[in-house]
Amino acid sequence: MWNHMLTKADEFCKIFGIPFSHIDMSSSDPLLQWKRKVDEVEKWIADAREKLHLKNNVRDFAVLNMLPETANEITRGIDNYCVPQLNEITSRAQDILNEKESSGQKNAEITETIARLSEKINDLRQYTESQKVHVRNETLAFFTEKLNSSEVMVDRVLEDLKKLRSVGSEAAVVRDQVDLIKESENYLQQHLSEFEESKRQIVEMEDKGYLSTDGFEGTLKTKTVELEPRMAAVEKQFSDTKNRLAKGVINFHGQHKDDVKKWLRYCERKLNEINSDADEINSVYDEYCKLQELRREVIKGEQGFLNTLELNERLIAEAMLNEQQGKEYQGEIQAIAKSRNKLQRRIQEKHSRLYTTLIEGLNGMLSTSIHAFEEAQATLCETKLCEDFDTATEQMNGAKRIAEGMVELEEKAQGTLELATTITTFGILILNEEDKTGVDEKIKQLREHASTMTGKSRVEFNRLLDEYLVLFRKEIEDRKTWIAVNENRMSSSYLEIEDLPGFQKELNEHKEFEEELNQKNMEKMADAAERVTELERNYKTDVRNLEKRWKVLKEWSNDYSLELQKVVKEWKVLKQEQDLLVEWLDPNEEQLSKINEKINWSDEEGMKKQIVDLKV
Fold first, then answer.
1. Among 339, 356, 373, which residue terminates a domain?
2. Does 534 reside within a domain?
3. Digit-coded pLDDT (tens) for 295-325
4. Which InterPro entries did the record assign (predicted)?
5. 445 and 346 in one domain?
6. How confident is the model over 99-150, as pLDDT tens digits?
7. What is the DSSP string of 11-73?
8. Which of 24, 160, 356, 389 is 20 to 30 Å from 265 by CA-CA measure?
9. The domain spanning residue 320 has which CATH number?
C-alpha cells in the first residue's frame, strides 16, 4: 500500500512539474511515527537516569533529601508510562510487520528496537532500585561524617583550652592567645550549629522513612545522644576559660600601657635636651648625633606602642572589655597615640632643621637647577620649525611651555639659592677650600641663569613665533586654494561612468582625495588659530570660514565614498550573475534555437517533443 501511494505521488509530481522532495510524506508514514514514539520513550528513560545520578564526592543534604522521592516518582513513571508505551509500540510494530511491502531488513530493525527498548526499561527499573540503596548509604555516610566532625571539634577545642590556662608574659604571646580565643569560639559555634542542624535533618529523614531507626542506621541517633552532653560540657568549659583569660589579658594590657607611657616620657625628656637652634657647626653635628641616638630609642620602643594599640583594638573587637572599661581604655590609648604622634612630629622638625645645615645634597640640588635652565634654553635655540604645519604647531606648543616654564624655574632657583646661601654661611667651618670654591661657583652660575635665562628664552620664543606666523599665513592661503579647487568635486557625478573599471578607478581616486582631505583637517588649524593670540583677526576669520567649508566638503566626501562603494559592490554582483548566465547560454544556444522554432500545430508528436525539450 505504501509503495502504491509513493508511485501515485510521483506521477502527480510529474504531471504538475513539482519536485518530489517538496512533498512531506513523514506525517503519513507509519514507520516514522512509530520511530518517533520510540524516541520519546528513550528520551524519558535518559532523563530519568540523569535525575537519579548522584555525582561522586558530592554530599549535600538537599540532594540526598530529594533523590528518594525522585526515585519513587520514576518507579511510578516506569509502571504508568514506560510499560504502557512499550505495549503500544509493540502493537503498532505488529501492524507494520503485517504489511505486504514490509522487507526483511525492516522487520529485523523493528524487532531489535522493541527488544532494546524493553531492555532499557528493565535496566532503568534495576538502576532505580540500586540508587535507592546507594542514596541510603550516602545519607548514612553523610551524617556519620558530620557527627565525626563534631567529635573532632570537641577534641580540638579541648586542646586549645590547654594553651589558654595562663596569660603570656609577652605582648606577641598574648596577642596570639586572643586570636586563639576568637578562632576557637568561631570553630565551636560553627560546629554547635551544625550539630543541631544534623539532629534535625536525621529526624526529618527518619520521619520520611529514608533512614531506619533500627540496625546500623539507628546508631546515628544513638551517637547524637552521646555527643550532646560532651558538646554542652566543652561549651561551658570554653566559656569559663574565656572569662578567666579575659581578666588576665586586661591586667596585662594595663601594665603594658603604663610601660608605654614611661617610654614616651623618657623620649620627650631626651628630645627637650637637644638644641635644634645651634648655629656653630660642631654643635650642630653633636646635636644631630644626639638626635640620631634618640631616633634609635624611639624605633626600639615603637613596637611596644604598636602592640599596645593592637591589643586594645582586639580587646574591644572581641568584647573583652565592659562598656566602662572600653571608654576608659580607649581614652587612654588615644592620649598615648596623640603624645606619640606629637613626639614623632617634633623629632622630624628638629631633624629637618639640623639636617639642612649639612652639605649632603647641596651640589646635586644646585646642579639640577642649573641643568634645567640650560636644557630649556638649548631646546629653544635648537628648535627649527618644520615645513609641515601640524608638526610646526606641535613644536610651537612645546616652545611655549618651555618659555612659560622659565618663570617657574626662576622661582625654584631663588629658593635653592636661599638654601645654599644659608648652608654656606657657616659651611666655612666644615668645608675645605676646594669644596667651598665648587659650591660658590655653582651658586654664581645659578644666579646668572636665574637673572638672564628668562629674557633669553623670550627672545628665542619670539623668533620661533615670527617664523610660525609666516608659515601659518602661508598655510591658510594654500588651504584656501586647495579647498576652492576641490569644492568643484561636489558638482561631479558618477552617472557619466559607463563600466565597472571606471567606477573602481573613480573610487580609488576618491580614496586618495580623502587621505589628502584628512591631512588638511581644519579643526586642528582652527584650534591653533584660537590659541595663537598674535595671529591677525582677518586670518582667524578666514580659518573659521575654511573650517565650515572643509566640514561641508568632508560630509560630501563621506557620502560620495559610500555611494561609490555601494555601486561597485552591486555592479560586481551583477557582473557575476551576467557571467553565470553567459556560461549557461553558450552550451545551450543550439538547443534553445531548436525549441524556439515555429510550432506546427498539425504535428502532435513534434509539439510534444518541443514541450519535453523546454521542460528539460
1. 339
2. no
3. 888 887 776 666 666 666 666 555 555 566 6
4. Spectrin/alpha-actinin, Spectrin_repeat
5. yes
6. 655 567 777 888 888 888 888 888 888 888 877 777 777 777 777 777 666 6
7. HHHHHHT--GGGS--GGG-HHHHHHHHHHHHHHHHHHHHHHH---TT---HHHHHHHHHHHHH
8. 356
9. 1.20.58.60
Return the H-helix or E-strand segment holding 410. helix 389-427
Same domain, 173 and 266: yes
| Domain end marker among 448, 464, 491 | 491
Name the grid cell of 175: 596577642
397 vs 405: CA distance, rounded Å = 12
* pLDDT, position 384: 75
For residue 7, pLDDT beyond 50: yes
Q: What is the C-alpha R_g of the chain?
A: 49
Cα distance between residue 563 and residue 374, in whole Å: 57
User: What is the C-alpha separation between 417 and 422, in angstroms, rounded?
Assistant: 9
Structural domain containing residue 387: 283-292+340-491
What's the sign of the alpha-carbon dihedral 368, 374, 377, 379? negative
**Angstrom distance (rounded) from CA 559 to CA 99:** 71
Whether 139 maps to a domain, the answer reads: yes
> Is there a single domain that holds both residue 379 and residue 353?
yes
Q: Which residue has the cell 637637644?
A: 274
**314 and 350 belong to one structural domain:** no
Angstrom distance (rounded) from CA 358 to CA 420: 10
* Distance, CA of 464 to CA of 535 (rounded, Å): 14
Residue of 509, 529, 214 lying closest to 393 (CA atoms):
529
Distance, in Å, from the CA atom of 93 to the CA atom of 34, rounded to the nearest integer, reads 7
